[in-house]
Amino acid sequence: AQSVTQPDIHITVSEGASLELRCNYSYGATPYLFWYVQSPGQGLQLLLKYFSGDTLVQGIKGFEAEFKRSQSSFNLRKPSVHWSDAAEYFCAVGDMVGGATNKLIFGTGTLLAVQP
Amino acid sequence: DAEITQSPRHKITETGRQVTLACHQTWNHNNMFWYRQDLGHGLRLIHYSYGVQDTNKGEVSDGYSVSRSNTEDLPLTLESAASSQTSVYFCASSDGLAGDTQYFGPGTRLTVL
Fold first, then answer.
1. For residues B6 and B23, what is the distance between their CA atoms, to the nearest angstrom?
2. Of B44, B54, B62, B94, whose CB count within 10 A is highest?
3. Which tens digit of pLDDT belongs to each residue from A76-88?
4. How far apart are CA A67 and CA A65, in angstroms?
5. Alpha-carbon distances, residue A71 vs A24, A26, A66, A110, B96 (angstroms)
6. What percent of chain B has pLDDT over 70?
């Protein structure tokens, strides 16, 4: 069955430091992968997505993610974290039907805290 | 601008009552989804719809129902609310085309006492 694992429940980084959030997936075919961010009390906002092509994907707010098929991973990175990046981050895999994203299967999320 | 809205944003109800959560989107999207978010579980799919008159069960559908009478709305009904249904509920929509993205509403926090 399809699944997504985010091994880090909570991460704290200093402002200006680099960030990497881990995501591993289990999916039988070529996965469609997403990273969403959720600020406190808000809905989810799409950061970036991978469908095909270049395995390094650029997103909004200076984030990027790299798809590594051999490791079944789609880790999210940012070279320099800002205090406003404090939020919860969700990785998801799309359960595809007919080439369109049918349903999303989410990981349990990683809560990011940023120290001044 | 197109958007997806949910109402109410907060709701407190009692065990056994019927509750309906509204979801309205102006994207003209075919696909609509309901998720619940609980600590340690991420988001789990409750029900989804690919178009008018179409509804499907998701991973955690017991105790919930939906109906799709038009493109814009997918209300979620809790037939007889239980304390285990205390959660934050998110509605989402997507256009159903290749490479589509799901857009999420702001959520409804439901407390069942």
1. 5
2. B94
3. 999 999 999 999 9
4. 7
5. 8, 10, 11, 19, 29
6. 98
